[in-house]
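Retro notes (design track)

What went well: tokenization of the new backbones is finally stable.
What didn't: we kept losing track of which sequence belonged to which structure.
Fix going forward: every design gets posted as structure first, then sequence, in one message. First example under the new rule, 271 residues:
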């Protein structure tokens, strides 16, 4: 389950479609929002309860003062996570691993045991936007920097066919440089709690471009049995939690089309 901020809410539609077709995951690997949704799936919650938890989420509930170079802190995110997932990986009903990056060493780290909430927050700490996550004496940022769609990770956990869901922002999204108002205009927008300044958009796209290249390289070396890419609006931002219903519907539609047209799905149901 790939990362993509609010775009990752498309995972909700995917899990509904898979649940309706009686797919039971043996293992889950995720990054960022994919890891968070994966953790909730791993609790063995009903997909309807998981969907409700996200669709009723208010963006302001996640806001907190930033630190260590992040615009937004992590306390609000940690609080919401703690309300919906257990304390440790070991308490999950389905094995889960998530990716993160040690910002000091540049090392890709795979979390799969111990405290769950800080690992999920670390995996989703988009650099420059969310504060790095201090954990185990280190500081972590979003795993999407090096492994946003961890197919290789889940293959170490199970021999079952792999279904991968890629919700990353497209690298060819166009920026509107005509709206640049200079540094003071950017600060004014932030003071009005308008998240998407041109400075932030440019930074985020600079993250998306290399992440997309790395993902395509990883896919070519280790393709999944089924790849699902929800048809999300190119301008659907990582912060657009208010568009959760739209993301859910795109994920559901893409999963239904992909799974129902895939040959091994019909065979598995007959057996």
């Amino acid at each position: 389950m790939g990362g993509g901020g609010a775009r990752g809410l498309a995972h909700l539609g995917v899990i509904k479609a898979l649940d309706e077709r009686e797919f039971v995951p043996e293992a889950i690997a995720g990054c960022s929002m994919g890891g968070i949704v994966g953790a909730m799936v791993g609790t063995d919650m009903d997909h309807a309860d998981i969907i409700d938890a996200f669709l009723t989420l208010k963006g302001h509930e996640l806001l907190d003062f930033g630190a260590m170079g992040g615009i937004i802190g992590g306390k609000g995110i940690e609080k919401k996570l703690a309300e919906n997932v257990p304390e440790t990986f070991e308490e999950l009903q389905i094995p889960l691993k998530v990716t993160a990056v040690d910002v000091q060493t540049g090392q890709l780290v795979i979390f799969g045991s111990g405290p769950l909430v800080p690992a999920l927050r670390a995996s989703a700490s988009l650099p420059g936007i969310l504060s790095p996550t201090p954990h185990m004496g280190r500081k972590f940022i979003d795993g999407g920097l090096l492994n946003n769609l961890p197919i290789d990770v889940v293959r170490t956990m199970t021999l079952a066919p792999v279904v991968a869901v890629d919700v990353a922002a497209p690298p060819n999204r166009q920026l509107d440089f005509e709206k640049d108002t200079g540094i003071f205009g950017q600060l004014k927008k932030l003071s009005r709690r308008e998240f998407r300044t041109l400075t932030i958009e440019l930074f985020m796209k600079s993250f998306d471009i290399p992440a997309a290249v790395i993902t395509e390289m990883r896919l070519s070396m280790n393709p999944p049995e089924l790849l699902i890419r929800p048809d999300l609006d190119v301008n659907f931002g990582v912060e657009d939690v208010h568009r959760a219903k739209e993301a859910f519907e795109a994920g559901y539609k893409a999963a239904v089309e992909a799974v129902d047209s895939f040959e091994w799905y019909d065979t598995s149901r007959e057996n």
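Added context from the reviewer: Confidence is low (pLDDT under 50) at residues 265-271.
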